[in-house]
Amino acid sequence: MKVKESGEDYLEAILVLQKRGGRVRSVDVAAEMQLSKASVSVAMKNLRNGGYILMSENHEIVLTETGRELAEMIYERHVLFSRVLSSLGVDLETARKDACRIEHVLSAESFEALKMYFRKNGVGLPADDGDDCTASG
User: Fold this and answer.
1) How confident is the prediction along the chain (137 residues), in pLDDT tens digits per residue?
2) What is the CA radius of gyration of the chain?
3) Is residue 57 exposed (0-12), middle (13-18) or buried (19+ Cβ within 10 Å)?
4) By C-alpha distance, which of 42, 48, 19 is closest to 30?
5) For the residues of 28-79, what is the DSSP string, one character each?
6) Residue 75: which of 135, 2, 136, 129 has the closest Cα?
7) Burial of 80 by CB count in 10 Å (0-12 exposed, 13-18 middle, 19+ buried)?
């Protein structure tokens, strides 16, 4: 099942929340993305049915291997584009919002080419450095 753009945003938000504090529940995702609990509940059901997340008995959300790979890919794109745009003088909030749009539409081939270009030119890539980029952008 191909996940939609909004599903990618949810996966990225789950990943970011896990990086911040470990355990994640739907209510945490709703707060992070500033969405209703009902909307998040429907999305979590779709992601669970697609094999991207698991839900424990205590309602903790866990990314599956497939879900984590997709979330990491989206997060990497988001952080890279946020940093690039910010380094060009774009306001950080605008850079994050624009990065959120770009991250979903760029092909893997184009992203890899841009990533190599940015690496050669000193633009940092995401790491577990506490970067506070979120999917809500």
Assistant:
1) 567 888 899 999 999 999 998 889 999 999 999 999 999 999 999 999 999 999 988 889 999 999 999 999 999 999 888 888 888 899 999 998 999 888 888 888 999 998 888 888 876 655 544 444 444 44
2) 15
3) exposed
4) 42
5) HHHHHHT--HHHHHHHHHHHHHTTSEEE-TT-BEEE-HHHHHHHHHHHHHHH
6) 135
7) buried
